C-alpha cells in the first residue's frame, strides 16, 4: 500500500517567521498537533521543517520563553524528513524509525507538499490490516468446524 492512501491531505502550514503563539493558536483552532513550515503557504508549499505541539511545550513553555517572540524557524526540525507520495508504507516506517520522528510531510515529484503521514495514520492502517487477517482466520476456522461436523 502506498503512503498517499493513508495520509492527511489537509496540512496546516505556517511561514518560518510565524510566532510560536500564533502556531499554537492555529493548532488549537484546527485541532492538529503539528504545523509544516513552508515559505509560501498559499503557493508552492515546499516543506522547510515541522513544529509539533510537543516542541511548543518543551522548547517554549518548558524554558519560560515568550511564545510571541519565538519564531517557528527557531523551533522547526531541520533538515525536514520527508517522503515521496509514491513511496510504500514500509519505506516511510523505516524512515520514521531511523530519524525518530512521528510525522512526515509528503511531497510530490516537484517537492511540493501534498499531505502528511503520522504515526497514528500508520497504526490505524496496520490495525485495519490486522483486523482483516484476524477475520480471515476466524472464517477459516468456522469453515473447518462446519466441514468436520
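^ C-alpha cells above, recovered residues below v
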Amino acid at each position: 500500500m502506498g503512503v498517499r492512501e493513508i495520509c492527511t491531505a489537509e496540512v496546516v502550514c505556517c511561514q518560518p517567521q510565524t510566532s510560536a503563539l500564533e502556531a499554537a493558536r492555529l493548532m488549537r483552532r484546527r485541532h492538529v498537533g503539528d504545523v509544516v513550515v513552508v515559505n509560501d503557504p498559499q503557493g508552492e508549499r515546499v516543506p522547510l521543517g515541522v513544529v509539533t505541539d510537543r516542541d511548543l511545550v518543551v522548547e517554549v513553555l518548558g524554558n519560560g520563553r515568550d511564545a510571541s517572540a519565538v519564531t517557528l524557524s527557531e523551533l522547526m526540525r531541520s533538515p525536514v524528513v520527508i517522503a515521496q507520495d509514491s513511496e510504500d508504507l514500509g519505506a516511510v516506517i523505516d524512515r520514521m524509525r531511523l530519524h525518530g520522528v512521528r510525522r512526515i510531510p509528503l511531497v510530490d515529484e516537484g517537492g511540493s507538499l501534498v499531505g502528511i503521514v503520522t504515526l497514528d495514520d500508520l497504526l490505524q492502517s496496520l490495525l485495519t490490516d490486522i483486523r482483516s487477517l484476524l477475520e480471515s482466520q476466524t472464517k477459516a476456522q468456522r469453515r473447518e468446524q462446519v466441514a468436520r461436523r
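The radius of gyration is 20 Å.
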